[in-house]
């Protein structure tokens, strides 16, 4: 192996390591829903290169209102999927999109962008 092949191989390994760390080991930001006077659990989520917060805790059996503010034009983040709740929403750039649901069972439910690259979790207790 010559020097160029070694550099390319090491660069590829470093990139693969970064991707694995980013998707599986990077710090996650958790938020618990705040209940309004009407009993609706509310959470504000910013969409910019990911979801912030990306872990949302709510209570089972109480209505939930998720406010997604998309603070970018990246095409990856233009669609939101919550497959366990049969929800699909377009997220227009620089606008807030409300998603309402009523979680009936406890568990951890994944939400993603349309491409599956941006991920978050809805934890129902």
UniProtKB/TrEMBL annotation:
Record's keyword annotation contains Hydrolase: no
SUPFAM superfamilies with a match to the protein in the record: Cupredoxins
Alphabetical UniProt keywords: Membrane, Transmembrane, Transmembrane helix
Residue ranges crossing the lipid bilayer per the database entry: 6-25
Keyword Membrane: yes
Source organism, top-level taxon: Bacteria
Domain EfeO-type cupredoxin-like, residue spans: 18-124
Name listed for the protein in its UniProt record: Plastocyanin domain-containing protein
Native organism: Hymenobacter luteus
